[in-house]
């Protein structure tokens, strides 16, 4: 069986001349302070920055933090079917971008409620995944469904279901990060002892978010923990 691939958020090839990626020029066009135009400058060793041509203000762009939960209830795993692009119609764990003035665990619980209308109890950190090529860092938490133990589709989801570990639809998952985390989660679940994981996803040029053949998992570290 072949998996369908989301045709968005593709990773671009670095320019042959050693300059910044083409997408870099789209990020900042006008200065936040004085409104003048922005130029792309090399601060040294190919460290590209957006600098105002007038007041010299530097607009820093940092990786986005994505937080979410792997929710378990009575041995089953809660997944959401995405109702928006990218990867509309694919399954994922409830997750999204962290907001200002919230913790990673608080953001993960908020995203779970927004996408699955589910209250959760955060159990422990589970997987930290860095994806440098698209400027994202994932922090996923182990969690349990909490009272009133209900869930339903949110404004950005088409469906929400509990899956037996053997029935998780890996061929229909939205993102490589989710697939990696769930495979390790199920492995730890069967082992009867959970670990905390950290790894880096190296996206290959031209790859799509959920392409199972266009990334490498690098620097995978795992640590056993005593609490369940």
From TrEMBL:
Keyword set includes Metal-binding: yes
Pfam families cross-referenced by the UniProt entry: NUDIX, Zn_ribbon_Nudix
Keyword Zinc tagged: yes
GO MF, one example: hydrolase activity
InterPro entries reported for this sequence: DNA-dir_RNA_pol-M_15_CS, NUDIX_hydrolase-like_dom_sf, NUDIX_hydrolase_dom, Nudix_N
Gene3D superfamilies found in the cross-reference section: 2.20.70.10, Nucleoside Triphosphate Pyrophosphohydrolase
Keywords for this protein: Hydrolase, Metal-binding, Transcription, Zinc
Range of residues in the leader sequence: none
Stretches for region Disordered: 1-21
Every Nudix hydrolase domain range: 62-186
Source domain of life: Eukaryota
CDD domains attached to this UniProt entry: NUDIX_Hydrolase (cd04511)
Family affiliation: Belongs to the archaeal RpoM/eukaryotic RPA12/RPB9/RPC11 RNA polymerase family.
Protein known as: Nudix hydrolase
Organism: Tetraselmis sp. GSL018
Classification lineage: Eukaryota, Viridiplantae, Chlorophyta, core chlorophytes, Chlorodendrophyceae
């Amino acid at each position: 069986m072949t998996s369908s691939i989301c045709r968005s958020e593709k990773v671009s090839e670095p320019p042959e001349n050693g300059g910044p990626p083409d997408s870099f020029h789209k990020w900042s066009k006008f200065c936040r302070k004085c409104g003048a135009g922005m130029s792309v400058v090399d601060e040294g060793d190919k460290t590209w920055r957006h600098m105002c041509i007038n007041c010299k203000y530097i607009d820093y762009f940092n990786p986005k933090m994505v937080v979410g939960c792997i929710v378990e209830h009575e041995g089953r795993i809660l997944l959401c079917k995405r109702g928006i692009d990218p990867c509309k119609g694919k399954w994922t764990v409830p997750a999204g971008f962290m907001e200002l003035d919230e913790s990673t665990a608080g953001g993960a619980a908020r995203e779970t409620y927004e996408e699955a209308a589910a209250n959760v109890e955060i159990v422990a950190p589970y997987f930290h995944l860095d994806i440098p090529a698209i400027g994202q860092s994932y922090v996923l938490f182990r969690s349990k469904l909490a009272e009133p133990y209900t869930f339903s589709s949110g404004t950005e989801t088409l469906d929400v279901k509990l899956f037996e570990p053997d029935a998780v639809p890996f061929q229909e998952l939205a993102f490589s990060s989710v697939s990696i985390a769930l495979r390790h989660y199920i492995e730890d679940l069967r082992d009867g002892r959970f670990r905390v994981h950290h790894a880096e996803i190296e996206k290959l040029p031209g790859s799509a978010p959920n392409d199972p053949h266009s990334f490498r998992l690098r620097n995978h570290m795992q640590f056993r923990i005593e609490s369940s």
